[in-house]
């Protein structure tokens, strides 16, 4: 039914060549990104809210890397702004009024109409669908509820997100009220992306791996399930990436996603043995391997292709986002190796 290798692989169908894209493929490692980012002298958020420039940086890695899928250019935290939280990037994200009390949670708005609340997002998606016109499929994305809550409660990045974990362990009703609101916002936000033309959805749970498996099961999984269950998924594959989720794949699989993203702390072949044939996987090259010489990158690509073996339902990716100081030619080389070495 679908003709793109990326979408076929999401559905577990066989392909003539393994599809590949890179998490954070539009970004600062590309001089072309930095040039567009510098235009007008605005901030990163200004770029996210300018549909013409945002679409341009989303297209760049398709032209430069020859990636098999494009991803919407935005950030997981942009839809939190219309919930009533002031967002800045310095360059890491900062909320000046973090959520700590029940009054804070009560004050959070769950916009009825996400297309109106973040109107630049459907505008970018529509531009990209027109620009790609059948060349590559477009992935929409959002943060998983837990990862979004990490930033909302902490107010910024953190090693351990102690403020959120304190709320979670000491005041579960408050944590639950926050998570219900974030999950409902997320559901509306991702469905709006599907309505606007996104052809797959990736949910980033960057911090999902900071909890023990039994805590993941109690404090994260129910909300992710609720979210994925509530998506208008007909024909739209859902990819769920939990950084650090390799030790609890049985639980992560219960999310109901069509594809699981893996980081590099698991052996891809062993992960597939645990997960079984009815779910696709995406991953999982250590992003720092892109600092290695070209022949080393090629060997690592071959190793991961070998770990996957002949199993259908495989999308090559990094195990986390590409780093800003990676030489672009090494990323180009990686994509070329995946295509050449997996060619049937
Ligand atoms: O993948 C893509 O090319 C699409 C764009 C995209 C961005 N952020 C743009 C961005 C995506 C998919 C994200 C997701 C995101 N954002 C995540 C989940 C994935 C992950 O990496 O774990 C998280 C946790 C964030 C939050 C965030 N945004 C952080 C922690 C930072 C600062 C650190 C950093 O990487 O700069 C950002 C800023 C950000 N988001 C930039 C870009 C291109 C850099 C901004 C700049 O140009 O200065």
From TrEMBL:
Quaternary context: Homodimer.
Site (Transition state stabilizer) location in chain: 75
GO cellular component, one term: cytosol
Domain of life: Bacteria
SUPFAM superfamilies listed in its UniProt record: UROD/MetE-like (SSF51726)
UniProt xrefs under NCBIfam families: hemE (TIGR01464)
EC number: 4.1.1.37
Protein name: Uroporphyrinogen decarboxylase
Organism: Desulfuromusa kysingii
Localization annotation: Cytoplasm, Cytosol
Record key words, sorted: Cytoplasm, Decarboxylase, Lyase, Porphyrin biosynthesis
Residues that bind substrate: 24-28, 75, 151, 206, 320
Domain Uroporphyrinogen decarboxylase (URO-D) intervals: 19-28, 139-155
GO molecular function, one term: uroporphyrinogen decarboxylase activity
